Amino acid sequence: MNNLSLLPQIGQILSKLNLKRLARKSGFECRKPRKITAHNFILALLALASQGSVALRRQAQLIGWLGEHSVSKQAVRERALKGRGFIQLIVHKLLDERLPTASSRSF
């Protein structure tokens, strides 16, 4: 299965999260983004994650394609450095939704 074919499914999962709030809370976004939105950043990261390593050039190309404009790999690198906490919040939220809590499991 092509990684790009997963984009609609990943987008549906991400639409359930309040990405703007999480991006601001983590410091990923301080003002309205011009080119690299939180949604496109995470969408590209997750789509490319199955390749083992996410190259900045490839992520920049995919973010640019999603946002319909060009994005430099340097801009993606800057966002990735700011995005560490943001990525952790996203993973935490996704795991909270997917894993049952200890109190809801019956033994």
Helices and strands, with pairings:
Layout (H helix, E strand, L loop, with lengths): L6 H9 L3 H8 L11 H11 L7 H12 L5 H10 L1 H15 L9
Molecular structure report:
- By secondary structure, the protein is mostly helical.
- The protein has one domain (3-98).
- Helices cover 61% and strands 0% of the residues.
- It has helices at 7-15, 19-26, 38-48, 56-67, 73-82, 84-98.
- α3 crosses α4.
- The chain is globular.
Order of helices and strands: HHHHHH
Taking the sheet with the most strands, its summary is: none
Task: Note the gap between the termini.
Answer: 38 Å
Q: Kindly name the structural category.
A: mainly alpha
Oligomer: single chain
Q: Unreliable stretches, pLDDT < 50, 5 or more residues?
A: none
**Count the strands?**
0
Number of domains: 1
Assign an overall shape.
globular
Classify the helix fraction into a percent range: 55-70%
**Count of alpha/pi helices:** 6
Distinctive features:
single chain, 107 residues, 61% helix, mainly alpha
Give a short synopsis of this structure:
61% of the residues lie in helices and 0% in strands. With 107 residues, the protein is mainly alpha-helical. Helix 1 packs across helix 3, helix 3 (38-48) crosses helix 4 and helix 4 packs across helix 5.
